[in-house]
Amino acid sequence: xxxxxxxxxxxxxxxTLLRTRGVAEATEAIQRAHCEGKASVQ
Length: 42
Known about the structure:
The protein has helices at 5-20, 23-41. By secondary structure, it is an all-alpha fold. The longest helix has 19 residues, at 23-41. Helix 1 runs antiparallel to helix 2.
C-alpha cells in the first residue's frame, strides 16, 4: 500500500502548528487535508 505523500505532508504541517500555534490552527490544517483528500478521490 502506497501512502499519500500530500496527506502525510499535511499531517506534518498540522503537528508543527499544534506545537507552535495551538489546537485551533492544527485542527484547521487537518480539516483542509481531509477535504482535499475527499476531492481527489471523487
